[in-house]
Amino acid sequence: MDVKVWMYLAYLAVSIGLTVWVARALSRNGLVFLEDVFADKRLADAVNSLLVVGFYLLNLGYVTVAMKEADAVGTTSQALEELSMKVGWVLLVLGALHFFNVFALGRYRRGRLRQQAAAHPPLAPVGYLPAQPGARPVNPAGPTPQTGPATQAGPTPPTGPTPPAGPTPPVR
Questions:
Q1: Which of 42, 44, 76, 78 could be joined to 34 by an S-S link, Cβ 3.0–4.6 Å?
Q2: How far apart are alpha carbons 9 and 122 in whole angstroms?
Q3: How many angstroms separate the CA atoms of 32 and 44, rounded?
Q4: pLDDT one-digit tens code per residue, 108-154
Q5: How far is it, in rounded angstroms, from Cα 136 to Cα 148?
Q6: How far apart, in Å, are the Cα atoms of 112 and each of 84, 93, 106, 118, 119?
Q7: What is the C-alpha to C-alpha distance for residues 152 and 34, in angstroms, rounded to an integer?
Q8: pLDDT tens column, 34-65
Q9: Ramachandran region of residue 118, left (φ > 0), alpha (ψ -120 to 50) or beta?
Q10: What is the mean pLDDT of the chain?
């Protein structure tokens, strides 16, 4: 057989083997991620199966289209160089497909979590923490009318260092 034929056979064996290995690893390890993305195990299983089929179709289609080599391959070293280029492109396509899937599913997950957060407003506080010694009480709802001796005394002076006396320099 010709050196080019051996190169084609090695390319197919390596590319198909890599595709099957990566698809199984992504399917097995990505299921947990998909269950978190969709919050439904049945839907995650279905999407996982569809992603595996699409992954096989795209990658094996690319492998078969990129198999043809127009230049003559006369020596073993030329065959290995061409084989490494072809397998390298297959690995880059595998990585790009994986990145695109993770990116798209991550965006979907963020949108779903954002919708859930908007549908469930945060709970009102049950109580307040005890006041620290020397700290002024803060009411987030704004000032409330007070009754009793505290209102007759007037506002409480601020605590902390006093500002220096005299004119303040202009702000540039």
A1: 44
A2: 61
A3: 9
A4: 888 888 887 777 666 777 777 777 887 776 666 666 555 555 555 55
A5: 18
A6: 42, 29, 10, 10, 11
A7: 64
A8: 888 888 899 999 999 998 998 899 888 988 88
A9: alpha
A10: 79
Type of residue at 92? L
Q: Which two tokens stand for residue 83?
A: 């084989």
Both tokens of 60, joined, read 């094996």
Question: According to the 3-state scheme, what is the secondary structure of the chain?
Answer: CCHHHHHHHHHHHHHHHHHHHHHHHHHHHHHHHHHHHHCCHHHHHHHHHHHHHHHHHHHHHHHHHCCCCCCCCCCHHHHHHHHHHHHHHHHHHHHHHHHHHHHHHHHHHHHHHHHHHHHCCCCCCCCCCCCCCCCCCCCCCCCCCCCCHHHHHCCCCCCCCCCCCCCCCCCC
